[in-house]
Amino acid sequence: GASRARAVEVRVLRGQASPWSRMGRAHAPPAAMRPRRASRRSPWPSIAFAFAAIVASRASAASADDDGSPRSIPVVLATRDAVATRADTYTYTSVLMPDDDHYIHRFEPRASSLVVHHMLLFGCKGAASKTLRTREGGMFSDNDGGGQPRGAVCAGSDPEPFIFGWGKDAPDLHLPDGIGFRVGGDFGFKTLVLETHYLEKFAPNLSTNGTLAHDANEDPMSGVTVHLRPGVPRRFMSVLAYAQGFVLPPNERRTEVKTVCAYTDSAPLAAYAFRVHTHALGVEVFLEKAVAGSGFENKRTTDTSREKGFTKPFHPEPIKLASRDPQLPQLFEVVASGETEKPGSTSFDIAPGDALRVTCVFDTSNRTSATRAGWGHGDEMCNLYLMVHAEEPRYASCTGSASGGGGRSKFDFESRAEKTKTTPEILASATGAFVVPPPKLDALSGRRDRAFGSDLNVTDSSWPLSVGQVSGVAFEPDGRHVWVFHRGSRVWRGGSFDENFSITETKPIAEHTIARICLTTGRIVKQFGANEHYMPHGLALAPNGDVWVTDVGAHVVIRYDARDGSRLATFGSEKNLLRKRLAPTRRVIGDFSPDADPSGFCAPTDVAVAQDGSFWVSDGYCNDRVARFDANGAFVDEWGAGRGAKRVASESAVNADANDASKRGFDVPHSIALDFRRARLLVADRERARVTEHALDGTMLESHDFKEHGYVYHVATLSAEDDGMSGFYALTWSRGDSKFSSGSSSGVRLLAAWDDGGAGSKKTRRYARWDLPFAKIPHAIDVVGGGVGGTRAWGRGVSLFVTETGDRDAGDASLHRVWLGERFDARSDTVAPARGWTYEAEPALYDEAAEAAEASNVDAKTSFADPPLVVAAAERPSEENFGREERLAVATDGDASKRAFDDEDEDEDYAFDAEARIAAPQHGGGFGGFRPGGAVEARDSRESNLRLMREGRASRLYALWGAGTLFVAALAFATYPRRGKAGWGRVLEGRRDSRAREESRRVGVEMT
């Protein structure tokens, strides 16, 4: 009823007669019952006010949606079903979007699966393509003896992002509040194009339940109504599209087609809904995520790690994220109710470095010949569309290896093709290390500046004063917050541990030791860990958001729930005597005997966590090993030499061949990190001044020698490739040791190994270094891409945090934010808050300086001096701030490394890979090589490009139309007596009839 009423209203606005206007004339009182003057005046007020009521109803429809949300504008795209003159007819309809910013918050399909196979909605940055025309007999016709694609959806070379799809009587789709597809304005889609695929030739007597038929005398129509809201959404919805080309063998009960791509953009994505599509042979379509980049590899008959004889293989099962029967209604199935994941929900996120694989399962047992991928309903397809939202749109497509094995196929982003053509290779000599001051503190109110003005970072300020020695740091994936693990008022001094590495402190730290800092305000917004820790050390954020820490004083690894700070698990023996000793006993230093408990730790330094909960621990200070645990927390394996017979006694072994067993030993593995893109574990072997790369089972692959620069304290990986700075970053410190000839003024350096897109071979890897003169006693780093955290306007670069473990009471800084980029101006480059963010949304937990003073029982002003601040100005700083290219010796286990790359690149032998380079048909748009049909020659069509309607104006226009209508009604009422029967009445009636005749010539909606 609502859609029928809106259709009538549209006709009225275009000048056609309506039931209401006819009703107004039919119910006029008889002439005998009225005075003559009244009979001449009464029809026109009735018509005028009826017309005004219709306009008002249209305005109200534009100001409130069916769900009661304010100011929703329905825009209809539809096609007359009668246009389908043959089976597999494809038609196209377009509509222009409003000139100002709007976003789509709801899709309302109106079609029947008895008539329509599918409908697809595309967005164009400009106009629709002029080459689009109705295709009869399929998207590929048989004219001229060969198939011909339908061409691009959008004009020129514009990408054609897929927005929405419908099939098999799928219902409406409502998007979360404040999240939607951006249209109109300067950056949204200017045109929407709807593709409708009709199954068979139009049959008037066929049931069309759910179509847009206006009444029994009019042709039925099929289409989609998109509902717009004015303004810019808080977060932007986008679609990741999968497709694959293949040939299916006949008489097979189960045949799988796999497509895998890695996500390498800097912005994390939150999944909202997914849609699958196959034809008649499809049984299941599911989406999986690799575990630490592993799980999609080809299966080998011989396991190299078993040949080594000291590790166990790591073959995790991929994580199934979503699955659906393609024969069910092909709706967008919602996997999350909003941004925040709730306990028990099926929501998931996609982080930089994640590898995602789509698998389509087909049953060809009833086919006697091979089935190709194609557009006809006798062919097959393998498609999955994933709706995701982020701070900026991220439309991408994937046509990865048909084998679905491990590989380096990546998502093809909307803007990547242009970016790679214009963006030069990043150079260390043109990249500086700039200190980013914390947000300014308002001296009068004690609050961070709300206005975020251009001088935000100029005034001296500091990070939270209550933070002590910071031993661990980790960015959240979106770069908006950072977590720190600090020691409060406790300081690691010479007598903090005895000769058995037992801590001499008898009580845990009284202050909160884990803090979450908002980088927009610079204030602590969450903290916990009071009376829990003795000597904090390493910190890591798990992919699911949990906080993992290592305590070298308690000899444990602890997992916390980041939402409320509750302790979820403890691994190792805890020193805190207030707790029950349910964990295994502490491992004795250097005890690698068969009777030793391998699940205990002695001063563990760091932890790294995979997507399924598997984790690796660097048991560094005592046992010089790395231990691996499964997702249930059970010990699996270990590698590395302890402080005993297995320890390398000579530094000459640093240059030994990687195949030498002694090379695999460590001397204080101080930090570890996972590289999800390449399924590797990196270890900062501190005292041997190197970073080692391992397969996830411990197999040694490469060793990076940094002995020229200093002891390696920390290593962090960057999977985001959009700025060309992906790879790993290492923090080194000479500690004043004369054997290091770095020449650095501070003895502290940051080193980067850029892998130029993840290949990581010696030929493509480039090394760079920067001196960090502001750091005195460095300890840890973390890095995040420059495309997140409100720093995109700063230009090309990445964000880092460098921590220190100096003496807080002596005024030593404990936290530094660094921008590693081509430029930075502290007067203008400020952190841009997230869209919709307010200061009140994240208030500080407490007055930091006052509480710190009370806890220490000293005056805050004298105890916590502001750290020295290096402010970067607009002009080019000294050459010391800029980087240098490096040439380092890289020892490689040639056989193991080669096998690792072979495992990634080699495809499995599948039956459907009989023909190479098969086109990847799909129902959706894409970028680069992922266009559904490619380009076609322009044809001179005699038929017009027609649209069903051009709705989308803001509701204020309808209010103005209503006011104008009332004015016309008043004018007609005042002037009618002087004009008589040949006056206004006939003029209005004549215009109405004229517009009705004109509209009859404009009813066509298919794009031909």
Brief sketch in words of this structure:
The chain has 1008 residues and is an alpha+beta fold.
Overview of the structural elements:
By secondary structure, the chain is an alpha+beta fold. Helices cover 12% and strands 28% of the residues. It contains 11 helices and 48 strands. The longest helix is centred in the C-terminal third of the chain and has 25 residues, at 955-979. The protein starts with a helix and ends in an 8-residue tail after the last helix.
Supply database-style keywords.
alpha+beta; single chain; about 1000 residues; 5-stranded antiparallel sheet; about 10% helix
SSE diagram, text form:
Blueprint lengths: L1 H12 L5 H8 L9 H6 L1 H21 L9 E8 L8 E8 L5 E9 L5 E9 L37 E6 L5 E2 L4 E5 L7 E8 L22 E10 L4 E8 L4 E2 L6 E8 L6 E9 L4 E8 L14 H5 L10 E6 L8 E2 L14 E2 L4 E8 L8 E2 L10 E8 L5 E3 L13 E2 L2 H7 L9 E5 L33 E6 L5 E6 L27 E5 L4 E6 L7 E6 L5 E5 L4 E5 L6 E6 L33 E4 L5 E5 L5 E5 L5 E5 L29 E7 L4 E6 L4 E6 L4 E6 L5 E8 L8 E7 L14 E7 L11 E6 L6 E8 L11 E8 L10 E7 L26 H9 L3 H4 L20 E3 L3 E3 L1 H12 L49 H25 L4 H17 L8
